[in-house]
Design brief:
This protein has 38 helices and 33 strands. It is an alpha/beta fold. The chain has a seven-stranded mixed β-sheet, sandwiched between helices. Strands 16-17-15-18-19-14-22 form a seven-stranded parallel β-sheet, sandwiched between helices. A seven-stranded mixed β-sheet has the order 26-27-25-28-29-23-31, with helices on both faces.
């Protein structure tokens, strides 16, 4: 006899694992009621249900449902038995309640009928405070039934398996086996096409979850909704990607029934993860959403709870989860379960309070709403914006407090003695901001006493140093998609095997993309390169710092009105032609423009708004920026509505383009966002965070791709930014703190301060003396600094010494603040010098040689030519799947590097033009003539109008235009031999030249169209 490799083999394996047997061995579909009490000793503690016991109208296993109630709550049932048809009354009341609130709510809250209350689920055991809870829990009946015929109108239809708790359906399963040429994708198709959502079993909320399963993968949905049914992967992941690892004990997907569906695990999901919530859409319509955790969300919470239960407070956890992977829900689930976490003995809470900290102001309200939405118990969630509020919340027993890192330094003041309490601090998007003063305040507030008695200065400093460290009475849970090296060292787990620092839990960008949980924002990446030429407008030849001058000239050109106009035209034209007319997201797609600064964002907004109006578009643009001192505009004055309303307004049909500088480039979750136009240099973490605004899926709107048009970064630069965070980031080792000894020695020997001054300052500082007395110590030191190097008789050399000292002082303060919280020892002198320099540095005035008045430079030049050429079209940027190992912080001293070379203005201009226009040997006027000549030849071609001007196929249009330009250059080769040679031999020049011709043709075509539309009819 050969092995059974059919679909029923998978059914048998699941049933046997859950019940300890399968019907093929038993000879019957179900196990008898008399055996229910022994179920806990078999398999995973399930009983096998009988498909004949399934009531299709009410979608319950009536035998198990009544058996549970009659054996556990006979007294409550007795209150109902005097009514006619009392059993029917119970079933109808149950059905109506599930239809209204969902089975998950009914299981949690029970069912009230007249004066009786029926508990439909006995809660899990999480502590030892109630000795009877274990007995009650074991009265629950977990069952699995195969081949359940569920339809009243089509009695032949069946679903492979249904899981019940006390007779109520919790999950359905469609099973497939690749050996039968059927996979999990066929199972999902079956749910979409043959499982009628009007049928009671598949009605929304009747079950908690529906699983599509084969031997390799699992997918799940909480809402069967025909072709609109949206499935999410429920897989472990393998090699930082999709799928599941090989299982030496059986099927790859066996974790589903051996781990997830184990009774205690399942009840924990019901009580602490699953939730039916109501949300309002932009039009005010209320919709219900049923939440069930993804596997990685469930796993990270459970792993943390297990570790915290074992090790108590004082631990650090780094959770590296991809942007868009549902971190807000993971944080919410973790926060609520940390509140209820008990020690191994089950007697005391591990934490007294949980504090959720976010460093993204936009997310503060978003996260707060999310947490409150999931709250089952009122009056345990509070927001703290002031120290008095925090203190009051703690005294009143508020268990969960939400705040931001920006507010925390102000919250700290006034907090009393909290050192006897234990805290869990969850940090959303943890970065190096957690290494500075805000984190110091946070750490100190959670563990430092408000000392009123007299104490020696050194003891006070030591207390402060202990407070600065990761408090032993607080555990820190840091969530981020992009961990920096400082974050890895502070929150990561050091491996005893290799000394490297690893995340506690990882859900990689690679896995999220491969599982189609987020979109790959690098799949359609188009880059533009700018080419420009400037002219010297003055007779003399002043000298400027060459490097700074080049940067200033580039900034001047990029902010020139002509440049903004041309780039904005490209953006608007692409958005209208490719996004709006392309019906992206069913014609609802949005775009974001990322500008280099707030003034540039405002300028782009003005031009884009005008261009949209000229194009008669039925929508406009919005600009978003944080208020900048000295900037005359506000969001409200420009947009016409309050800044806080921008996210909601952007969802309406009135606005489709959002122009920003930095605001909304992190923490902004808008699933309608499809396209991004980037005119800002993006570095590492900033690049990942900014571009990830596009990665949210939106299956309902058929969002299956994204598009980026980048004017400022190359595809190579973007790849370098994304690679470290594509899979796992690991820190090679610890930072060498001994370098601080060398830094201190270097600062000491300069002679700006004497150690007795540092000591006197700290004596006053730590005894809470008036600020005025601190200045008495610091001012003579600052005067000594002003005279530094005077004996050299060379003002420039003296300035260099001052700059060098100030740079090293600032570096010492910064690096010590970052390292102090993780050093395993205390160094009082470092701490004293840190506070002294922190107070002194603002008083140290330096004259920076490089700080020139470059206004003269800008007045000396004028932009002559500007052009753009597309370098890459719809490029797919491939990322490196290997683990990224980063080096620890560089603790080496950094000081003044000396003065950079200066060049005369004509050299700077020549160098600039060579860099940005590929060295075409012709005067500006000659270039204009040559460009116009080629343009006329192209426009005069009989193929121009049909193949270029009116060609809607972008790729064919571009090929045709390149052919026409090539033909025009060929025709001019005798008159323009140098141009011809450059065009043929130099690929960069040819691309630049063609890009410029295309720009001229675009502008002339637009002008012609505008002129024609203005003619009287």
């Amino acid at each position: 006899m050969v092995s059974n490799t059919g679909e029923d083999a998978l059914e048998q394996a699941i049933e046997a694992a859950l019940t300890g047997d399968c019907r093929e061995n038993r000879g019957s579909a179900a196990q008898p009621p008399a055996s229910y009490g022994q179920a806990k000793h078999r398999g995973q503690g399930y009983v096998a249900g009988n498909p004949a016991d399934f009531d299709r109208r009410f979608a319950i296993d009536k035998t198990l449902f009544w058996h549970f109630l009659k054996t556990t709550q006979a007294e409550e049932l007795a209150k109902l038995k005097n009514q006619p048809n009392w059993e029917q009354l119970v079933l109808e009341r149950l059905s109506n309640k599930i239809r209204k609130d969902g089975v998950i709510t009914v299981l949690k809250k029970g069912l009230s009928i007249n004066d009786a209350h029926l508990n439909l689920l006995h809660k899990g055991v999480y502590n030892s405070l109630n000795p009877n809870q274990k007995t009650l829990f074991e009265q629950n009946i977990f069952s699995i039934t195969r081949q359940v015929h569920y339809s009243e109108t089509e009695p032949g239809k069946s679903v492979d398996m249904v899981l019940f708790i006390n007779g109520l359906p919790l999950a359905t399963f469609e099973l497939k086996k690749p050996q039968t040429k059927q996979t999990v994708h066929n199972a999902m198709k079956q749910y979409r096409e043959t499982r009628d959502p009007k049928t009671t079993l598949f009605r929304f909320g009747q079950c908690l979850v529906h699983f599509a399963v084969d031997t390799d993968e699992v997918f799940m949905t909480t809402h069967v909704n025909g072709q609109s049914t949206f499935f999410l992967p429920f897989n472990k992941g393998v090699n930082h990607g999709k799928g599941n690892p090989a299982n030496p004990g059986g099927y790859k997907t066996a974790y589903l029934w051996k781990e997830v569906l184990e009774p205690h695990s399942l009840v924990q999901i019901i009580e602490h993860f699953a939730k039916m919530v109501e949300e309002k859409d932009p039009k005010g319509k209320i919709k219900r959403i049923l939440y069930f955790p993804r596997y990685h969300q469930m796993e990270v919470v459970r792993r943390i709870l297990s570790d915290a239960k074992t090790n108590g407070a004082g631990q650090r956890y780094l959770i590296q989860h991809s942007a868009g992977s549902g971190k807000s829900n993971s944080i919410t689930w973790l926060a609520f379960q940390l509140i209820e976490l008990y020690d191994p003995a089950g007697r005391e809470n591990v934490f007294d309070s949980v504090v959720v900290v976010t460093d993204r102001k936009i997310l503060d309200q978003q996260l707060r709403n999310n947490i409150r939405q999931f709250s089952e118990v009122k009056n345990i969630v509070a927001a703290a914006e002031k120290s008095a509020e925090l203190k009051s919340h703690l005294e009143q027993g508020k268990r969960l407090i939400i705040t931001t890192i920006q507010k925390f330094p102000f919250i700290v003041d006034g907090i009393g003695d909290l050192s006897e309490k234990r805290f869990a601090v969850i940090i959303d998007e943890a970065h190096s901001s957690q290494s500075g003063k805000s984190a110091d305040k946070l750490n100190m507030s959670l563990g430092m006493e408000d000392e009123q008695t007299e104490d020696v200065m050194q003891d006070k400093i030591l207390k402060a140093m202990e407070g600065r460290k990761m408090s032993s009475n607080a555990s820190f849970f840091a969530f981020t998609a992009t961990p920096k090296k400082e974050t890895l060292e502070k929150f990561g787990r050091e491996s005893p095997k290799d000394g490297r620092f690893y995340p506690f839990h990882l859900y990689s960008m690679k896995q999220a993309i491969e599982e189609n949980f987020i979109l790959d924002v690098l799949q359609n990446y188009t880059t533009y390169q700018s080419f420009y030429e400037i002219q010297k407008q003055v007779a003399d030849n002043p000298a400027f710092n060459s490097k700074k001058a080049q940067a200033t000239l580039k900034a001047y050109v990029e902010s020139h009105p002509d440049t903004i106009e041309k780039k904005a035209s490209v953006m608007v034209n692409h958005f209208i032609e490719s996004v709006v007319k392309g019906r992206k997201l069913k014609g609802k797609a949005r775009a974001m423009v990322v500008a280099s600064s707030i003034p540039r964002a405002y300028e782009y907004y003005v031009v884009i708004s005008r261009l949209l109006k000229e194009a008669n578009m039925p929508f406009g643009a919005i600009v978003a920026f944080s208020q900048k001192e000295g900037f005359e505009h506000t969001e409200e004055s420009v947009n016409g509505f309050a800044g806080k309303d921008i996210p909601d307004r952007f969802k309406t049909d009135d606005y489709r383009i959002l122009v920003v500088a930095k605001k909304y480039t992190t923490g902004f979750d808008e699933p309608l966002l499809h396209t991004m136009y980037v005119d800002r240099k993006l570095q590492t973490v900033q690049a990942v965070q900014t571009l990830s605004r596009l990665n949210r899926c939106n299956q309902k709107m058929e969002k299956n791709d994204t598009f980026v048009l980048d004017f400022a970064n190359t595809s190579t630069e973007i790849k370098a930014a994304f690679d470290p965070f594509y899979t796992s980031a690991v820190l090679e080792g610890k930072t060498d703190v001994n370098a601080l000894h060398d830094w201190k020695d270097e600062l000491d020997k300069v002679g700006v301060y004497e150690w007795k001054e540092v000591d006197e300052f700290n004596q006053l500082f730590w005894n809470n003396r008036p600020d005025e007395e601190l200045h008495v110590i610091a001012d003579p030191v600052a005067e000594r600094f002003d005279k530094l190097g005077a004996e050299l008789g060379d003002e420039d050399e003296a300035d260099k010494l001052k700059i060098d000292f100030k740079i090293k002082a600032k570096q010492f303060v910064k690096v010590y603040a970052q390292l102090a919280c993780i050093m395993p020892f205390n160094n009082v002198e470092w701490e004293m010098l840190h506070w002294f320099l922190l107070f002194l540095i603002p008083k140290l005035k330096v004259k920076t040689p490089e700080k020139e008045d470059l206004k003269e430079l800008l007045e000396s030049v004028d932009m002559n030519t500007y052009a753009m050429a597309r370098v890459k079209l719809n490029e797919r940027i491939e990322l490196d799947s290997n683990e990224t190992v980063v080096e620890p912080q560089n603790p080496n001293q950094r000081g003044y590097h000396g003065e950079e070379d200066k060049d005369p203005l004509d050299v700077i201009v020549e160098s600039f033009n060579e860099r940005h226009f590929n060295g075409w040997e012709a005067t500006p006027e000659e270039k204009k003539v040559k460009f116009k000549s080629i343009v006329k030849l192209v426009q005069g071609s009989p193929d121009y109008e049909a193949q270029v001007l009116n060609n809607k196929d972008e790729q064919n249009r571009r090929i045709a235009l390149e052919s026409l330009i090539q033909r025009a250059v060929m025709l001019q080769r005798r008159q323009e031999l140098d141009l011809y040679k450059l065009y043929v031999k130099d690929e960069d020049f040819r691309r630049t030249f063609e890009g410029t011709i295309e720009q001229i043709l675009t502008v002339e075509a637009a002008n012609t169209l505008k002129h024609d539309t203005q003619r009287p009819i």
